[in-house]
Amino acid sequence: MKRTVLHILLFLLLFPLSAWAQQDERKAYIVGVTVKDGETIPQIHLPTVYIYAPLKFKSSREKKKYNRLVYDVKKTLPLATEIRRIIIETYETLQLLPDEKAKKQHIDKLEKELKEVYTPKMKRLTLRQGKLLIKLVDRQCDQDAYHLVKLFMGSFKAAFYQSFAAMFGASLKKTYDPEGEDAIIERVVVLVSMGVL
User: Which residues, 6+ apart, have CB-to-CB distance to 144 below 8 Å?
Assistant: First the structure.
């Protein structure tokens, strides 16, 4: 009886230590190494950190405009990222399909599904956010929206959507210039992506 109680007591005392040891093991991770001159050197890849000088606004109107841009980027960047993911998946799927007829059927089905899912989201965007989304699609996909539509849906639909956008003063051919015209947008996108804003 005393032996059983002693075993239970030891188990209860050692169980937290074993759980702690297992928990501590889960925090470990594998690090790559490089061998140079017979020495093994750990190799750790750190994420790029961007540091920007604080913005100085000349007026409250300018600050309000910047805050509106931050809001717009937070609303449209996830959509642009989702568009990029859909384009990659679609491209990969099209590579596996046997003929043009199957590819066209897949594109038609996908277009219908995308309209059902994204039309309500797009209707909630303002014109300013729509124009920003066109630029962010170019940033995320390395190709402007017009050429993406043309690639997947053909020249006719690309021209139709371009003329529709033109009615509202937008252009699907608008490109993203992170070092020029769109430098402030790039700054906001990077800071939002890092979780700073």
Answer: 134, 137, 138, 172, 173, 174, 175
